[in-house]
Amino acid sequence: MADLFGLNNFLFLMGGFKVTLEIGFFSIIFSVLIGTLVGIARYLRIPVLGHIGSLYVDIVRNIPCLLCVLIARFMTPLPPTMSGILAMSVFTGAIMAEIVRGGINSVAKGQFEAALSQGLSRWQIVYHIILPQAYRNIIPPMVSQFTTVIKDSSFVWAVGTEELTGRGTILIGRYSDTSHLFIIMGCVALIYFIVNYSLSLVARWEHRRLTAKSY
Amino acid sequence: MGVNNPFALYKWQALFDARDIFIDGLTTTLEVAIGALILSVLLGIIFGIAGVFPNKFIRVLNRVYVEFFQNTPLVVQVVFIYNALPQIHIVMPVLLIGIIGVGLYTGAYMAEAVRGGILSVSKGQLEAAMSQGFNYWQAMWYIILPQAKRVMLPSMANQAINLVKNTSVLAMIAGGDLMYQADSWSGSNMYYGPAYLTAGVSYWIICFLLSKYINKLEKKAEV
Q1: What are the ABC transmembrane type-1 domain coordinates in residue numbering (chain B) (predicted)?
Q2: Where are the domains of chain B?
């Protein structure tokens, strides 16, 4: 029992947690970028790019995350963590694109016309007028999507990338006792819970701040 | 059309020869999806109502359920159920583990959708119904929930689609679902292209048909 709580096991789990955070962090950044670019392309109805964006969203939103993980691992030459980041970014990017679209649609149409009448170019309008207002509205759903990224990054264990869930599962295999199983999985779940619950508190706090500000 | 082409014709030929495996997987996926959907909607309604229940202890139960299942990964939950049950001498087919795991996870999201829907109906409706002699449950069932449906359905629909995608978690506990079959078949012969494309198209069609069906439901609920 003492062995279970040894420093080695702790470091072993933390090594997995580091990979989870790496994949989570970069996937969040890339998916917000993808979502924003696709959102703009669709909003401005840029020829070809707008259509590719819509096609991308319609395809990726209806396939499982795990499929993206498998494709990125086995059909690209990328190393494990990178392929995980690629899969999670592409998968989440489609969801972010929908969130961004919702945010852009929530900005009154008159804003675009008013800015156009002031002589701003379409890109200037998007950058200075539309996006700042859109982002304000979509921070809560975006942040709660971040928690989904952290959770879904556990799918990369399916291709043998040792993130937090993977390390936890490996540890289970080393101990045979029922109580060990509960303790190990409990610790893994607790770590995810702390990260995600903090994020969802941020989302809720933002939501309250925004609704308080906008009446 | 060499060996390096991931979609070479002979690979498709091999997949066609092994079609029974894929049909088997697809059947399992559909079974798990339908079972989990029913379970999650049931849990969603029960815990959704619990979230607005007058009794504080019941409301806390709703929070504990929702926060736990929304903030920990489905993979961890399913791996836990898969490993823990045999240890306490409960032997279950993987199919059932999938239904319970995915159903419990999605149920938390359904509960939030139901709770949001109920909260969108003005409070006076419940009071009015109860003043007319409805008890709490009758008022909930006949007056509140039908009105809440309009707000609930879109987010429940989203969750239903997520549920179908998430049934692929079974692949991680050798669940014999479509993703597992595609993964293990292509893992043995490296014909990833056709296997993943077939799996992807299958999931896509299921989700697409589901969203079409839900759109129809939503239109009906609006009238």
Answers
A1: 26-214
A2: 9-222
A7-213 has which fold? Answer: MetI-like fold (1.10.3720)
Q: What is the pLDDT of residues A25-75, one digit of tens each?
A: 999 999 999 999 999 999 999 999 999 999 999 999 999 999 999 999 999
Contacts of residue A139, defined as CB under 8 A and 6 or more positions apart, other chains included, come to A203, A206, A207, A210
Token digits for B31?
A: 């079974």
Quick check: B192 and A165 CB within 8 A?
A: no
- A147, two tokens: 């928690």
Interface touch B165/A181, C-beta < 8 Å: no
Half-sphere exposure of A77 (CA within 13 A, CB side): 0
Tell me which of B22, B76, B83 to substitute to probe the interface with A (most A C-beta atoms closer than 10 Å): B76
Token output for B34? 């339908």
What ipTM is given for this predicted complex? 0.89
- Does B83 sit within 8 Å of A185, measured CB to CB? yes
Contacting residues for B205 by C-beta, under 8 A, at least 6 apart: none
Closest B-chain CA to A151: B73
B71 contacts chain A (CB < 8 A): yes
CATH 2.60.120.280 is the classification of domain B9-222? no
Contacting residues of A for B192, CB less than 8 Å apart: 70-71, 74-75
Chain A, chain B: beta-carbon pairs less than 8 Å apart: 110
Q: What is the pTM of this model?
A: 0.91
Tell me which residue has tokens 């890339």: A30
